[in-house]
Specification:
Radius of gyration: 23 Å
Number of helices: 18
Largest sheet: 3 strands, antiparallel
Strand order of the largest sheet: 1-2-3
Bound molecules: acetyl coenzyme *A
Oligomer: single chain
Shape: globular
Number of strands: 6
Order of helices and strands: EEEHEEEHHHHHHHHHHHHHHHHH
Strand content: 5-15%
Helix content: 40-55%
Length: 431
C-alpha cells in the first residue's frame, strides 16, 4: 500500500487517534482503521459494508454516480463492443490485453480443459431431476476438489493457474449438464471446434437425434452476456469467495461458496425473478399496479432488475444489455415480444416516477438479460447458472489477487454484541 496522503483525527473520550488516509487511483479516499481497535479499544460498525473497503484490488473499478464500470481501466462499453469473453478473461486474470499470440494460446489452454472427469457423470445422477440447476452447480463445483487433486495446493502458483483455467473451461460444461439432467436429456460432450459461447449453446441445445448448428447471432449475444457479467469488484458473491479463500480453502470450494451466494434473489437470482415478474405483469396496462406495489413498503414487493448498491445512475451494463436485447430479438424477428414491450414501458414509467427518481433506482444488468436468454430458449432456472459461468473469471481473478498478496490475513469481522450479559447456567428443573 502506498504512503498515506494525509491524516484524519478521531476524538474519543478526550483522546485523539490518527487515522491515515489513503488515496486510490480512482474513487473516494479510504480511512485506514486497522490499528483502531488496538489503540482505542473500539470497533467500527458497518453492516452490509456500505462504507468499508475490505481489500486493495487492481481489477475492476465502478463509479456508481457516473454509472461507469472499468475492467483494468478499460470501459465495459468498449470491451462489450470490441472484445470477446475469453479476451476479457485474460485481461481480468493477467492485468493487460493479450497480444494475438497470447490470446490464441489462452483460448487453446481453456479449450483443452472443457471436458469434465467421466466419473462426474455418476455424481450428477445422484441429484433429483427436479433440482434447481444452481443447487446442482453448488454441489458439483464443490465436488471438483474431489476430482482434481493436482490443483488444490494454493501455495503453488502453477496449481493456482491450472485451477483457474479448469474452472473457466468446465463451468459451462457443468451448467449445461445440470440443464440436460433437469430436462431428462443425455449429456452433450463439449465440441472444441466451437467458440466458448457457441460450445455452451451446443452443450445445452444439441441432442443426439438431430444435427445442431449454432446460430452465430445467438453465440455473439451469449458472449456479450458473459462479458457483461464477468466481474463487478467486491459484490456479495466475490466477497464470499475472498472470505472463503482467506482461510486457505481450495479454489473449487471457494467458487462453490460464490455460486451459493450468487443464487439469492437480491444478487444473481434477480435475473430469473425479473423475467418471472415481467411475465406476471404480462401487459403494459398492468404496470401501474406493479409500480404502486413496489412503492408500498408493506407489500414486500420490489421491482426486480431495479436498483443497485453501488450504481446511483444507469448501470452501464443495462444500457448495453438493452441494446443487445433489441438487436437479438430484431435479428430473430421477434421484436414484438410482449415481455420486451412490458420491460421497456416499465423502465420508461419508473424512470419518470418520483419514488424511483428520488431513490436513484435505475435498471440493473438483470433487467434485460432474461429477455435475451428467454429468446434463446433457456428456461428461467438457467439464468442464474449462466451468470455463474460468466462471473467465475471474476471470482477466480479476485481470489488469485488475494492469495498473491503479502501479509494476507483470514477475513474475520467483529460484531456489536446485543445478547444477554454473562449469567449462570440454570438446571432444567428450575427453569
Ligand atoms: N423496488 C422498489 N424499491 C426499491 C428497490 C426496488 N427494486 N430497490 C431499492 N428500493 C428502495 C428500498 O425500499 C429503500 O427504500 P427506503 O430508503 O425508503 O427504505 C431504498 O430503495 C434503498 O434500498 P436498499 O435495499 O437499502 O438498497 P441496497 O443498496 O441495500 O440494495 C438491491 C440494493 C439489493 C440491489 C436492491 O435495489 C434490490 O433489492 N433490487 C431488486 C433486486 C435486484 O434487481 N437485484 C440485482 C442486483 S444487481 C446484481 O446483483 C447483478
Amino acid at each position: 500500500m502506498a504512503e498515506p496522503t494525509r491524516i484524519a483525527k478521531l476524538e474519543l473520550d478526550g483522546k485523539s487517534y490518527d487515522l491515515p488516509v489513503h488515496s486510490p487511483t480512482l474513487g473516494p479516499d479510504v480511512l485506514d482503521i486497522r490499528k483502531l481497535y488496538g489503540e482505542a479499544d473500539v470497533f467500527t460498525f458497518d453492516p452490509g459494508f456500505t462504507s468499508t473497503a475490505a481489500c486493495e484490488s487492481a481489477i475492476t473499478f465502478i463509479d456508481g454516480d457516473l454509472g461507469e464500470l472499468l475492467h483494468r481501466g478499460y470501459p465495459i462499453e468498449q470491451l462489450a463492443e470490441k472484445s470477446s469473453y475469453l479476451e476479457l478473461c485474460f485481461l481480468l486474470l493477467y492485468g493487460e490485453l493479450p497480444t494475438a499470440g497470447q490470446l490464441a494460446d489462452f483460448e487453446a489452454r481453456v479449450t483443452k480443459h472443457t471436458m469434465v472427469h467421466e466419473q462426474m457423470h455418476n455424481f450428477f445422477r445422484g441429484f433429483r431431476r427436479d433440482a434447481h440447476p444452481m443447487a446442482t452447480m453448488v454441489g458439483v463445483v464443490g465436488a471438483m476438489s474431489a476430482f482434481y487433486h493436482d490443483s488444490l495446493d494454493i501455495n503453488d502458483a502453477w496449481q493456482r493457474e491450472v485451477a483457474a483455467i479448469r474452472m473457466i473451461a468446465k463451468l459451462p460444461t457443468i451448467a449445461a449438464m445440470a440443464y440436460k439432467y433437469s430436462v431428462g436429456q443425455p449429456f452433450v460432450y463439449p465440441k472444441n471446434s466451437l467458440s466458448y459461447a457457441g460450445n455452451f449453446l451446443h452443450m445445452c441445445f444439441a441432442v443426439p437425434a438431430e444435427d445442431y448448428v449454432v446460430n452465430p447471432i445467438l453465440a455473439k449475444a451469449m458472449d456479450r452476456i458473459m462479458m457483461l457479467h464477468a466481474d463487478h469488484e467486491q459484490n456479495a458473491s466475490t466477497s464470499t469467495v475472498r472470505l472463503a479463500g482467506s482461510s486457505g480453502a481450495n479454489p473449487f470450494a471457494c467458487i462453490a461458496a460464490g455460486i451459493a451466494c450468487l443464487w439469492g434473489p437480491a444478487h444473481g437470482g434477480a435475473n430469473q425473478a425479473c423475467l418471472e415478474m415481467l411475465r406476471e405483469i404480462g401487459s403494459v396496462d398492468r404496470i401501474p399496479e406493479y409500480i404502486a406495489k413496489a412503492k408500498d413498503k408493506n407489500s414486500g414487493f420490489r421491482l426486480m432488475g431495479f436498483g443497485h448498491r453501488v450504481y446511483k445512475n444507469f448501470d452501464p451494463r443495462a444500457k448495453v444489455m438493452k441494446q443487445s436485447a433489441d438487436e437479438v430479438l430484431g435479428l430473430l424477428g421477434i421484436e414484438n415480444n410482449p415481455t420486451l414491450q412490458v420491460a421497456k414501458e416499465l423502465e420508461r414509467i419508473a424512470l419518470e416516477d418520483d419514488y424511483f427518481v428520488s431513490k436513484k433506482l435505475y435498471p440493473n444488468v438483470d433487467f434485460y438479460s432474461g429477455i435475451i436468454l428467454d429468446a434463446m430458449g433457456f428456461p428461467t432456472s438457467m439464468f442464474t447458472p449462466i451468470f455463474a459461468i460468466s462471473r467465475t473469471v471474476g471470482w477466480i481473478s479476485q481470489w488469485k489477487e488475494m492469495i498473491g498478496e503479502k501479509n494476507q490475513k483470514i477475513g474475520r469481522p467483529r460484531q456489536l454484541y446485543v445478547g444477554a450479559p454473562k449469567r449462570d447456567y440454570v438446571d432444567v428443573r428450575h427453569r
